[in-house]
Amino acid sequence: MYVFKQLREYYWSERRYFVISMLCLMTVTGLGLVYPNLFRHLIDNVIANERYDQVPLLAFMVLGVMALKAVFQFLHGSYSAKLGNQTAYNLREALYRKLQFLSFQYYDKAKTGDLMSRLTADLQAVRDFIGFGFVQIINVFMMFTFGMIMMLSINWKLTLITLAAMPFLVFTAIRFEGRIHPAFRLIRKSMSTMTTTVQENITGVRTVKSFAREPHEIEKFAERNTDYKENNVITSGIWAKFFPLMELFANLSVVLLIGAGGWMAINGSITLGELVAFYSLIGYIIQPMWGIGFHINNYTQSKAAGERLLEVLHHYVHVKNKENARVLNPDKVQGHVRFEGVTFAYGESQKPAIADFDLDAPAGSVIGLLGGTGSGKSTIIQLLFRAYQAKEGRITLDGQDIRDVTLESLRSQIAVVFQETFLFSSTIRNNIAYGAGAVTQEQIEHAARLAKAHDFIMELPLGYDTVVGERGLGLSGGQKQRIAIARALLLNPKILILDDATSAVDMETEHEIQQGFEEVMKDRTTFIIAHRISSLKHADEIVVLDNGRVVQRGTHEQLLKIPGPYQDTYNIQFSDQPVLELDTEPASIGVAPADTTTSDQHAQLEEQQALKESAVSSSYTKRRGLAT
Ligand SMILES: Nc1ncnc2c1ncn2[C@@H]1O[C@H](COP(=O)(O)OP(=O)(O)OP(=O)(O)O)[C@@H](O)[C@H]1O
């Protein structure tokens, strides 16, 4: 019962439904006890004394009792349903709320299919038990108690003889519970694994098809399906073994009653009416015992399901508001960000993704982060909006440690355009306005224009009312990115983070978007993560990272003059231009002499390259009919 104690807050407020449902069921049970007494009266008093005129009255009484029983049965059913459904509603709300606040750390490992099965199948099992199962179990005890009292009042010796087999039944039922509970846990686990497989297959259908992995996927699913089936077969085996045994012990009581009761009736220790009444009363005892397997099954299933719900509900939230955390005043936020000796690793045993990182980003500055894949760029910005918590060092916003302010007020000052764009299956308008509260169509269009999304949106049949598919399916990667950029711009944040935000657009569009950015970057601190030098060369400071450590920092012009990763990247990206080795000896063919290359020449080279890439990409997009 520990699990249900833990879940108490979700059903306790609905206890009135439980009380009404219980009272109705008690009435139904009580009315059920009228039948054996009517039988006894019919045989011993009416038939034995040949007072047949009383038979119609007795028949009407039975009819009346049946009708009353039906009414209370109905009331019990509807109040139980109210109890179960209201509890499920409360739980669903709580689970969903919890999912909103669970940290990024949780989602790094969480599986969508598994979570979905917790929110559906597990929740339903708990609903069924709290709504119906629990009341039924109490009713079983009541039927047993009432039945016993009546039987004892008729003949205590026959009662004891009849119930001699009951301890065996109870013992078997307890053993059954011990075996069936783990079996149900396995079923639920394999069910969630199977659901995850289906969900991942549907989400990743493009990858599956492009790699022609359908046979592998079918095989993988077959394995999980077999696992699920086998767990069900094992459970059915346990059920098949115990159920007849329990039925056998239950029916043993009938055998004992017929033997001992028949003998007592023959020798006159009980009347025939009492024997018949006893026979119907034994049903009152056997029926609940017989159904005990079902109730145990129901209970164990919902207990296993409840445990899985509690796992989510009680899951530790790694990043949360401190007690007395301050709420940032949006009008006072300047956007001065500082990282001071920040070190962070994703797991205890993992090496730091970022080590001893320092950065001073004055309000309104533009910071570029460059580095190879896995060098820690995204980690830096994730720490800034507290997706994760840095263990060493501190990050401040306008001098305040970001751990001292509420997550909501911190994040409302930051807009992030992620590497992977997520769009909701809703209209483009709603996707752009996401998180911005009440905004006008003009504001949405303005943001879309800055993000160079307006023109392609207007070419869609329904414009801003076009509903995009799940995760934005139906749009190209670049189009999705532009919508995501518009979404961030609409928020009008103090801090703007562009995490490889233009990776999916062509050079030409990137150039155009950047012109838009220049306008929106004014007065806000901007962090740009990019692989293309052209995306961050205007930054006030460019930080070059390698393996979580800063290896170079400076402006574009400063870094170009120093041999190192930045210059190497520049040379690779502008590879068909003369190689730059500004502060070193001219080394290979085509090397521009260091002392003769001026920043004007760099600009010229970049311009030539940008124009060239732009021409290539625009002729490519035109050829493919993708002109934007
Ligand atoms: N959620 C995570 N859980 C565990 N390790 C992670 C997680 N995210 C990143 N890492 C690890 O941290 C390191 C830095 O990753 P990060 O995403 O910051 O790199 P990045 O420079 O942004 O790379 P990219 O350019 O490929 O996006 C990598 O070694 C990566 O494997």
TrEMBL record:
Keyword field contains Transmembrane helix: yes
Localization, UniProt: Cell membrane
Pfam family membership, one: ABC_tran
Origin superkingdom: Bacteria
InterPro entries assigned to the protein according to its UniProt record, in alphabetical order: AAA+_ATPase (IPR003593), ABC1_TM_dom (IPR011527), ABC1_TM_sf (IPR036640), ABC_transporter-like_ATP-bd (IPR003439), ABC_transporter-like_CS (IPR017871), P-loop_NTPase (IPR027417), Type_1_exporter (IPR039421)
Disordered: annotated segments: 607-628
SUPFAM superfamilies: ABC transporter transmembrane region, P-loop containing nucleoside triphosphate hydrolases
Span of domain ABC transporter: 337-572
Residues passing through the membrane, by range: 17-35, 55-75, 129-152, 158-176, 248-270, 276-296
Cross-referenced PANTHER family: ATP-BINDING CASSETTE SUB-FAMILY B MEMBER 10, MITOCHONDRIAL, ATP-DEPENDENT PERMEASE MDL1, MITOCHONDRIAL
Name of the protein: ABC transporter ATP-binding protein
